[in-house]
Amino acid sequence: MANEKKRDYYEVLGVQKNATADEIKRAFRLKAKECHPDTHPGDKEAEARFKELNEANEVLSDPDKRARYDQFGFEDPMQGMGGGNPFNGAGGFGFDMDDIFSMFGMGGMGGMGGGRRQAGPVQGSNLRYELRISFEEAANGCEKSFEFYRSELCDTCKGTGAKPGTSPVTCSACKGTGQIRTTSGWMSMARTCPNCQGTGKVIQDKCPGCGGSGRKRMRRTATVRVPAGIDDGQTIVVNGGGEPGLRGGPNGDLYVTVLVKPHKIFQRDGNNLLLDFPISFTQAALGGELDVPTLHGSVKYRIPEGTQPETEFRIKGEGIPGLNGRGKGDLLLTVHVEVPKRLNEKQKELLRQFEASTTGREYEKGKSFMDKIKSAFN
Question: Is the pTM value of this prediction over 0.70?
């Protein structure tokens, strides 16, 4: 069984079973960045790991699915009674409660008489789509259109599955009840009729347009507004964008998960932008004005003389806007002093002259270190 090979969802995300929704969200975002397909092109192992994280997050971030997973794990205790995976695309249990009650001779959920179940409206399945956008589009917001496929009611038979001009007939196996009932001693057991799948009707003349399924796979276009500040892995819900329901039921929803491509120079930390900026030895020593890139062009920023390597400067308001429209993050600029290479003899001589002219007070850390050495050995 495939489920036996799966790792526990909490283990996949690296969180405790009592983790909060925010802790689960943070864990998913952190781990997903480590194995994102865009940063590991062609790496099948990273791709499999990313899918595993997505699956775990899909279940644990949904309160209903998480509750069922905590109770049943991967194994559905009612499997075989109309079951399957309890975390299927329809978002419900993998078994039919009417079938469970009927097995004990109690009929459906609506009563104890053992009569035929009433087939009411059923909501359509939810669909999922992964939308890839650029770093700038995520920061600034955008409107994106994309194509996807979904099963829709056949326009030839209007979803009945029967050839136009004909109608489904009563199932001969269950006599239209939708159930096959067997009696053993005092116990009466019922199961869904395999001939008609519990509908009580069978199609003799199938629709040529859909082959009797009542549905066709169609290509559709959806347009979503991506809000400014959205982060990698977050989901936009298009209500009613999923597959049509059964027997007049409402459409399912379309869940659009946003995948943000990494930026060439920026990294994101919440609503802040991180930027590593190389400067020369001279700029660090004398200070000066830097042309700092941002998501909206460059800005001038002056660093003081004597700037040390790995110093971080904060440029207010040049980060990512908040999803709620309030505030904006900052740009955190970390400078890296680059030591010059391949100097000519004249340059080397000038540096020697400079070094010879220093008194030691120019190097605070070096002087402090030498003082500690003298203290340790005297």
Answer: no
**Antiparallel, parallel or unpaired: β 288-294 and 297-303:** antiparallel
* Domains of the chain from N-terminus onward: 126-164+207-262 (2.60.260.20), 266-377 (2.60.260.20)
Q: How far is CA 364 from the centre of its chain?
A: 49
Tell me 4's DSSP state. G
Q: What is d(CA 110, CA 115) in angstroms, rounded to the nearest whole number?
A: 10
Q: Per-residue pLDDT for the chain (378 aa), expressed as one digit of tens each?
A: 444 467 889 889 998 888 888 889 888 888 888 887 767 777 888 888 888 888 889 889 888 788 777 777 776 443 333 333 444 433 333 334 444 444 444 444 433 334 444 456 888 889 999 999 999 999 999 999 999 999 888 888 888 888 998 988 999 888 888 888 877 666 778 888 888 878 888 888 889 888 888 888 889 999 999 999 999 999 999 999 998 887 778 999 999 999 999 999 999 999 999 999 999 999 999 999 999 999 999 999 999 999 999 999 999 999 999 987 778 999 999 999 999 888 999 999 998 998 888 777 766 665 565 566 666 666
